[in-house]
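Morning F.,

Quick status update on the modeling queue. The single chain you submitted on Monday has been processed. Sequence for confirmation:
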Amino acid sequence: MGSWYILGLEETSRSERVLFGVTMTVMLALGAVGLLAPTFLSDVLTDTQSWILTYFEWWFILLGFVLLIGTVMFMASKYGQIRIGGPDTEPEFGLFSWVSMVFTVGFGASILIWGVAEPIQIVKSPPSPAPVEGATTESMALAFMFIHEVFPGLAMWYLPVAMAFGITVYTHGVSEYKISSMLTGIRGWKWLPDWLTDIEGSRSVVYWVIDAAALIAIIGGIATTLGFSAQTMSAIIGRVFGFEAAALTYAVFGLIGIIFLLDVWLGLRSGIRNAARVTVVCIALAMALLVVVGPTLYMFELGLDATGVWLSEMFRLTLYTAPSGSANGAAGLTGFWWAWWAAWSIFVGSFVARVSKGRTLREMFAVLVVVPTVFTWIQHSLIGGWVLAPGNQEPIAQAIETSEPAAIATALNITPYGTVLAVLFCFVIAGYIITSLDSAVYMLSAITLGTEEPNPRNRAWWGALLAVFGMISLRLEEFSAIESLSVTMALPFSLFLLVILYGSYRVARQYTGDEDTAESTTVIPRSHRSDADSGVTTDD
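Structure tokens below.
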């Protein structure tokens, strides 16, 4: 048994082994800095995020709007009828399992964390000038939350990657299961230089760099969520239950790690699917309890009022930057959210395409955008009304001066039966950690090995790396440093999203026969790369 077998790399090429080694080395070096000099790493990451959002916030807002228009037009066209995997491919997962995996992977614990923190932050520092006249500050704050994590945020970032991966890799067929394979659609484009469009000549350099950057971006995005989750769970354990937070949080993460390793061994169909289903049930129970013990009437009324602001002023709030106004948090939060979505889009989009085989692009749109829009709208209406209610708002606002996780703990402490709700929140956070971690390492390993069925050994190594970053997040002094990881990783990949959106359009035209392939040098074989592409029995 050699070292390549232990690493799960026994059937890989030299470039794939180098890809694994370089990415691991870079991220472990960053992790070592976090363990040995957490203050230094916090300062660097926070300063980097500040610089990016100062000079490129406008870019993320503009890019998100362009991607939204492009993806909606794509889905509304005849290309939305394309079935991922080919016309004869059967769905691999039942409806509930499919929806559960897409929902839990696409959001993480951000609904709980930012559902509490963002409305309070905006109320404390309202936009100036106000983007909506006549709306209360609370309704406007919750409307911004809807913009950022309900719609259009949902449709802007994940769909371009999911479409590109689904059409290029599964439907039309390519030779390699890589992020760089989504560039298939632009090969042969006359405006591009030969060194980029020549697959044989560029695969060893340009495409390899793209795959390496994708792996690092995925790690940055998931590390952000692991950081949020770790510090939030630590705050709940320490401030709600009164236990020694650090030691018990490490113990909880150790238990989560054991469950994760079991999930890795069980694989996609048993491990990730079942973890996602349990998490969705825990979310439903937590929200039902919140309706019972929270300020029910205020939650319903504020949710409806904020929904009116959100729907009537959607484009105004989406493009809001206040160029001549005073500094405010709303526009900055939009830039941060769009960068976070962009960092997550690489792994979430490719994973959604993987579990959506046998479904049309429009069906994928419904499960990735329409269904989660309803779910997240309900959750944010309830959570936003809970924390903004008279009597709750002031103590939570004071706690947020310490940190966002402290605000969640305070909200639980001032709520009747808050300890029961806290237990459910911990289960939800743990479920999000397991499903996000498991799906992330699944795609990290799949991209590294170039196969849609990566072996458990290689997945375990990626899981160990991400677990290290989850532990490091507990040592970072500022919560804002955790936020900075996704923003830093997202900027280099933002242009890539535009390129693959256009590439998807070209591939779709070739697949449907709208583009004469004789006039294009783009070569896309129609072979499928997995025996599981068809004839799979749906099991819910």
